[in-house]
Amino acid sequence: MSITINHLTHIYNPGTAFEKKALDDVNLQIETGEFIGLIGHTGSGKSTLIQHLNGLILPTQGEILLDGENIHKDKMRLKEVRRRVGLAFQYPEYQLFEMTVYRDVAFGPTNMKLPADQIHENVISALQTVGLGEEVYEQSPFELSGGQKRRAAIAGVLAMNPEILILDEPTAGLDPKGRDEILDAIQNLHEKRKITVILVSHSMEDVARLAERIIVMHRGKVAMTGTPKEIFPRVEELEQMGLAAPQISYVFHQLQERGYDLPADVFTTEEAKEVLLQFLKQVKK
Amino acid sequence: MIRDITIGQYYPVASPIHRLDARVKLAITFIYIVTLFFVDSFIGYFFVMLSLGAVIASSKVPLRFMLRGIKSIMVIIVFTMIINLFTTKGETLLLEIGFLRITWEGVAVALKMSIRLVFLIVGSSVLTLTTTPIHLTDGIESILKPFSKIGVPSHEIAMMMTIALRFIPTLLDETDKIMKAQQARGADFDTGTLKEKAQSLIPILVPLFISAFRRAEELATAMEARCYHGGENRTRMHVVSIGRRDFVAFAVTAVYVCIIFLLRHAAEIVPFWI
Ligand SMILES: Nc1ncnc2c1ncn2[C@@H]1O[C@H](COP(=O)(O)OP(=O)(O)OP(=O)(O)O)[C@@H](O)[C@H]1O
Ligand SMILES: [Mg+2]
């Protein structure tokens, strides 16, 4: 399912002293099966933008098209839109409310009025995807650890079987292991089921590693879009917007300045390892 | 949207009214409310309207915000109007339907009562829209201070009010966020039977209560970690002082009160419907 955003502007509390233009004439096209990294400084409008994509907030101006059709054209379709565009909020664990983890994850598909066996199948597969074992299914979600809660909440969105998965900083406040597990689960989903993913993140490393295309927001506008290899070399512009390139690329800059003949476009640690090993081999010879 | 709910919401602009001392504003609002009950003629209400209008204009808060409070008490206003319309004993009959008698006096009383209610609400809105909650509770604390000798816990009352007011917007934001998160999972709050609607509140209320308790606990810990121990020997960060503009405000209020009482006598000379 493709998303088209045309001239989207959003103003919070228009006509009052609290007026705030959070989005300013945003135009974007997101194709089926893409993995998008959405980055931007705090307050740049990322959360506002993604909440438009499943119709949670109404645009002040402009339109959002899913497969060419305006999502607000028909009020009855909005529920369908919300099933197909799954959105996990920042700190999604604060939405947990049911008696058991299983029932909480089943909340979404139940609301979508899916048949019972389909619900069961979705819930189990979502819980497996995020790596929660059977022992927690009947536990209260409030007894879980922070990382487990986060995973249960994300499973609650996955259980609707969305075609587009949007995650607002899914790893904020998690330890490195918890972070890697969630990101791996997302990457797996993207690769196996070919679902479109939009990942909002403050970690340039994660974005460089996972995203196929990066969208940079700045003061409510789209400042840049492109592949990591196109975006991250523009370090100066990024830094002016309060962002940065992945840390490893600064290491490579330093090495180059000290006269080592290394490529300039290395942005992930994996790649850096390969390049350095290769380089060392050559030097030895 | 949920943010539209205003409960004592402050409207941040710079105006002479905003700069007045909170205690002075509290006192003047109190005087205003009391004198409102002494107004008994339409001329009097007209004068109140002019004065209130002048204050609102100089507060620079859009009229829309001032009038917002009326919406929430519309039911009460209509109810008061109907009761007064039918129960006021009067001489000059306007119309009679069955056992219901409506008199000119009834119409006048009904109108006056609802005007009074509207003025009450709008007048108190001026106070809450132009005074930050912190200043307001500080003001209340310092007004209550003399009573602490007879055991009124003035500091504690003010602190509780400050915290409660401080958390209203936070909890509203939180409600908004939780509602959106559940809507993203297909929750529907608008349609369905009454039972379904009541049930649809559970996914909002449970997380909301949990977060309120969590926040309360965090706040208590944070206060204790900074050695908070109540009102005794506490000094203020902002020491407020009454300035010239506060005296001007009092002088204007004094004139206002005099005119209100003069108009009361005017009502004795002219007929009741004026
Ligand atoms: N419900 C709201 N009401 C009023 N203003 C809001 C609301 N939500 C966000 N804003 C404002 O809109 C702007 C954009 O906010 P948004 O949450 O979209 O930023 P963000 O890019 O997600 O930031 P962060 O990285 O901190 O999550 C901010 O200036 C914010 O203060
Ligand atoms: Mg955000």
Put the structure in a nutshell.
The complex is a heterodimer of chains A (285) and B (274). Chain A is α/β, with parallel strands linked by helices and 285 residues long.
Describe this structure in words.
The complex is a heterodimer of chains A (285) and B (274). Chain A contains eleven helices and ten strands. Chain A has 285 residues and is an alpha/beta fold. Chain A folds into two domains: 243 residues, P-loop containing nucleotide triphosphate hydrolases (Rossmann fold, 3-Layer(aba) Sandwich); 40 residues, no CATH class. The longest helix of chain A has 18 residues. Chain A is globular, with a radius of gyration of 21 Å. Chain B has two domains: 192 residues, no CATH class; 67 residues. Chain B is 68% helix and 3% strand. Chain B has a two-stranded antiparallel ribbon. Chains A and B meet through helix 2, strand 6 and helix 3 of A and helix 8 and helix 10 of B.
Q: Sketch the major β-sheet of chain A.
A: 6 strands, mixed
Q: For the residues shown, what is the average pLDDT of chain B?
A: 85
How far apart the termini of chain B lie comes to 42 Å
Give the distinct bound molecules. Answer: adenosine-5'-triphosphate, magnesium ion
What's the helix and strand layout?
The complex is a heterodimer of chains A (285) and B (274).
Chain A: E1 3-12, E2 20-30, E3 35-40, H1 46-53, E4 61-66, E5 69-70, H2 77-84, E6 85-88, H3 101-111, H4 116-129, H5 146-158, E7 164-168, H6 176-193, E8 196-200, H7 204-210, E9 213-218, E10 221-226, H8 228-231, H9 235-240, H10 247-257, H11 269-284
Parallel strand pairs in A: 3-8, 3-9, 6-7, 7-8
Antiparallel strand pairs in A: 1-2, 1-4, 4-5, 9-10
Helix pairs in contact in A: 3-4, 3-5, 4-5
Chain B: H1 16-19, H2 22-36, H3 42-59, H4 63-72, H5 74-87, E1 93-97, E2 100-103, H6 104-130, H7 133-144, H8 154-184, H9 194-199, H10 202-225, H11 244-269
Antiparallel strand pairs in B: 1-2
The complex binds adenosine-5'-triphosphate and magnesium ion (MG).
